[in-house]
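Following up on my earlier thread - several people asked me to post the actual chain instead of describing it. Fair enough. Here it is, all 387 residues.
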Amino acid sequence: MQSSPSVAVVVVAAGSGSRLGHARPKAFVEVAGRSILSRSMDSISGMSEPAAVVAVVPAALVSEAAAEFERLGVAAVVVAGGQTRQKSVAAGLRMLPAGTEIVLVHDAARAFTPPEVFDRVVAAVRSSGHGVIPGLPVTDTIKGVAADGTVRDTIDRSTLTAVQTPQGFPRAQLEEAYALDAADFTDDAALVREAGHPVLVVPGDARSFKITTADDLERAESLVRTTTPWSPRIGTGVDAHAYDPGAELWLAGLHWPGEAGLAGHSDGDAVAHAICDALLGAAGLGDIGGLFGTDDPALAGAHGDVFLSRTRRVLEQAGFRIGNVSVQLIGNRPRFAPRKAEADALLTSLLGAPVSVSATTTDGLGFTGRGEGVTAIATALVLSSPV
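Reply from S.P.:
Thanks for posting it. Predicted structure:
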């Protein structure tokens, strides 16, 4: 039987976030399609050891938060917060599971805190037996200012630290501190020190910035755009057409004068059609028959460039971009090698991504070897947009 985690994280997400300028509470505002609360879970899921999660949210959004955690596959206890941050944390502490030895208190608004910061705090609490907070050196010059706006003095910044979360504590010390009838403090470390326990500082991380204002939200959006990798997906497409001596040959987007054409509702361009199926299959968007059926009179006799351009547009509208495409053409004719570079350049320009077509024969085997038609096999890499 698996034992329960010795570490628990209380995620504070009950604030209104009025300075952010949104109608929704801050933790439920989206950053690139995902809520701040959802993104804060990525850090906890990336910790080197499992941790129980207690999320403290506005009372009206407990059910919504629970549903979001279920979609994420995160086993979290969700509880309504209080009127202040301190009361919200206290509500979370009351829901800690048995067996919890170390408690981390983390602001959901610091949604991009790297998992290694969580690990660093846990390790320091475990080794020291004291409270531990992550922090960064203060780099700006700090002035003490009087009520009338005049400068009183310059503060020695070497003694200052800009404090972040998660803040970690032995459970007993944190619960003792919260049992005090103390005034509200701005963070948990101050309350624990009020209870007489020391608190240590370990290195924080610049990515642990707190999303408080509209500028912070834009910074978060930019961070997602620049650091989240595009996810690769691969698809395969196959097409085959018989020769039709009464038609003109269009293959790989090119016209081949003097060659027998290929039978089909459109121009029979097996290379273009195989590419479309490979791209659509990689993106999970169906196939060429489903999107561009033979019952569409507008596509009767349409050339490959029409299908390729439409396919590219469908992918881009769905949030994908094309990585590259490789095609193997199988058939006795036309003699493809002299026009390979021309075909590659045309297809590359249509798709906005590298395309390479090579050709081979089957040494007389099968319908292609008997000169009855051609087959094209395409492999495509597409990239899904970061979210």
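DSSP finds twelve helices and 17 strands in the chain. That should answer part of your original question.
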